[in-house]
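Lay summary. Proteins are chains of building blocks that fold into shapes, and those shapes determine what they do. In this project we predict the shape from the chain. Here is one chain we studied, written as its sequence of building blocks.
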Amino acid sequence: MISISQGKLAVILRHRRICLRIPVRTHEIKPPDQLEEVFGRYTHGLLQKGDIVVLSEKMVAAAQGRLVATETIQPSWLAVFLAKKVRKTSPGIGLGSPESMQVAIWECGKLRILFAAVFGMIGKWIGMKGLFYRIAGRQAAWIDGDAPYGMLRGNITLGPAQPNQVCQQLARQFGCQVAIMDVNDIGGCEICGASPACDRKLLIDLMKDNPLGQDVEQTPIGILRFLSEHAPCFFGCG
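And here is the predicted shape, written in a compact code that computers can read:
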């Protein structure tokens, strides 16, 4: 029985190919867990030839120890000021708290965050969205705030370190394609890193509805498996 995030389909049809999306439930990943051990333990006996394994960026970062306890952070005036300017969304806090903004300042540097904030504001005035993160960098975008729901409460989670290298190492070790992705329920779907054989465009298409969820599902690992190469298209193919 496949227990997938509520309202999402376990089997989907894309480009005349039937894909099975298998969520893998785990314990709450955090130090001192080792990513290779966690990967091997929870995919053991499940993997088949041709499978693609998708890992949540938050799980990978947690296994790398890239967590900062919220109670240890004393936000600067700049972090407090900038956090008030962040648009709040339902899937997560992001940089919308002074604590997570302070972590972004530590991670990316004060000057870079300042430049990003100034140009981000200018971008909003002229109708160009996303300038803040283009300048601040993807590590700023991958920071997860301390949300009162979901996993790893009490911590700010940074983005995964060296995601492409991590995927390549896991792919070699376990004989499958591997990708680390940041996906949410409002249409955000980004590949943080992937092994070289991954079709990135196809991965986005398969994961953009966030089938693993991001709350209490506790399924930070997903296995994508194609059941057929060419399926008859009786109804609209994606």
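What the prediction tells us: Residues 67-157 form one domain.
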